[in-house]
């Protein structure tokens, strides 16, 4: 089976769904890739190169370059979704969600509920998140927790190319608004990805490693750090079970609780700030649902409650990593 | 006397396998092992399984400790008579280690290929060479060519061995036409013609067994021998409840419950096996394909295609392998085979003898093909 990068896997998913369903359209800044300039069309495909080739295949009616206006992008996505299309909007950085938050928070997320189920909003917002590129405080945040907190939205945070393709196809076919978070440092990570279209259901965490000493719950890029940490822990005789959440809304509570019932110890890893985070959410879930099984306090490995620093040395210190996970696990499992 | 020292090396189960980890030694040092006896539990990225002794002898040395990861082909144990001294074994191990070079990733040289048969892409793996007629491996419902991972590379040591993904399965097209046994047999016929395979030794498992029988009935001249592993198509009854569970399973728990009924030892069902099964089920077109196949072939606990009566009329060597703990198709169905058929019944084996007793099944398949040449 061919190896494909996360970038290629997402491109695969977009192309196949656009081929399968003519209601699927793509919109965002530069998604056509240099459109507007003679001879430059389709040069790149969005700031991350993810939509490359779509403009050439599907033309301007379905690959829509937008002004630099997040409000316009989100309003167009929500409106076109409510009236029959299945838009996939690209928002360059999730940090820019503030500009268009009302369109999501008070419009798209509420339509189905407030119209008594008579309206659906099958839109997907693809956006980037995360640190590690020295992109500073306004371009490095992990805001999936904010959207997870809003009922009516589904939130996806894939950790590898196989999952990225299957989860994005699932997102496009879903009738609710879905925010799809892509880590900006992970686009070149490759994995075996089938050419055929396939789906991965939402709310099904993936158990990536079996272990009976400690459960490590992670999402997105932190899954890579968790796996590395698990390998290091194994060298010291600590066997970690690694769980990749894949989606934070819905959340696979059952898999988390079952795992902690088996191991009695939990480390939650989240690249986001700690307050009101996925880490805090999972810790709360386990405190309420598996308290009597816990042999030690729950550990949360997160960024500190501070903006993402620009200086590379500081950003390095700031981000959670495998060593920090190892240290946390050893505190409760050694 | 060093020629009496024989090595046991890390087996290669499937093309992807590069290394394996020793989970548990089932045969202690100093014990006499029989050919086919399970001597060590090995875990790979894909599967856990017991490695069966390829030859008998006294197991003198566990070279690989529990928990140790060894590359494919690396030394895991030494078999030698008591007349060989410990020092000679030490020297043998040291000599092996000095010379051993792990093989490069063979996946590059032996990758599946695709042909178009009746407008459908058919994925297949074609490895091995030899003078005899090729062996063709036909998998069962919800399986694919990877289901032969314990058999395909071993059998290919002596002859050409081709395994295909049937339509609706693996990496082949998911359109299954009428989805009945006749459809798959026609596809098999056209596939073999496309590959210029004039006469083949057919090996069919479960539904692949019924397909192989149907092909043989219509193409007597193209079949040298017929090896049937827990085959469908011999009598009416089948575990319809299991089929519904397997086809209906959507999540890990359901998949594990369904797959664990395939084998006698449920520990054989690894996390990866479940993951691969779910990935298959979640591929576009697969739920529809399975619905068509189920409707075309089963009616509750009854198989719609029963071919055993006609098998006696054609003069082809037939061998049948069945596990006595098969929960899917009753092993008693082998009674319906023609009088000349050879029947092997394994104890404490479920519906997947080719995986549960790989070494012994491989030996039987190779021997039967040689005899039937």
Give your account of this protein's structure.
The complex is a heterodimer of chains A (334) and B (373). Chain A is α/β, with parallel strands linked by helices. Chain A folds into 2 domains: 3-192, Rossmann fold (3-Layer(aba) Sandwich); 206-333, Rossmann fold, CATH 3.40.50.920. Chain A has helices at residues 6-20, 54-58, 70-82, 101-114, 144-148, 161-173, 222-235, 253-263, 278-289, 312-318, 322-333, and strands at 3-5, 24-28, 63-65, 86-91, 124-129, 154-156, 178-183, 190-192, 206-209, 214-218, 240-244, 247-249, 266-270, 299-302. A 7-stranded mixed sheet of chain A has the order 3-2-4-5-7-6-12, with helices on both faces. The N and C termini of chain A lie far apart (40 Å). Chain B is an alpha/beta fold. Chain B has 2 domains: 2-101, OB fold (Dihydrolipoamide Acetyltransferase, E2P) (Beta Barrel); 110-371, Rossmann fold, CATH 3.40.50.1820. Chain B has helices at 86-99, 152-155, 181-194, 207-218, 240-248, 252-260, 271-281, 286-297, 308-311, 353-356, 358-371; strands spanning 6-9, 19-25, 32-33, 38-43, 48-52, 57-62, 69-71, 75-79, 113-117, 120-127, 135-138, 161-164, 200-205, 223-229, 298-299, 302-303, 318-323, 342-346. In chain B, a hairpin with a 2-residue loop joins strand 15 (298-299) and strand 16 (302-303). The mean pLDDT of chain B is 92. At the A-B interface, loops of A face loops of B.
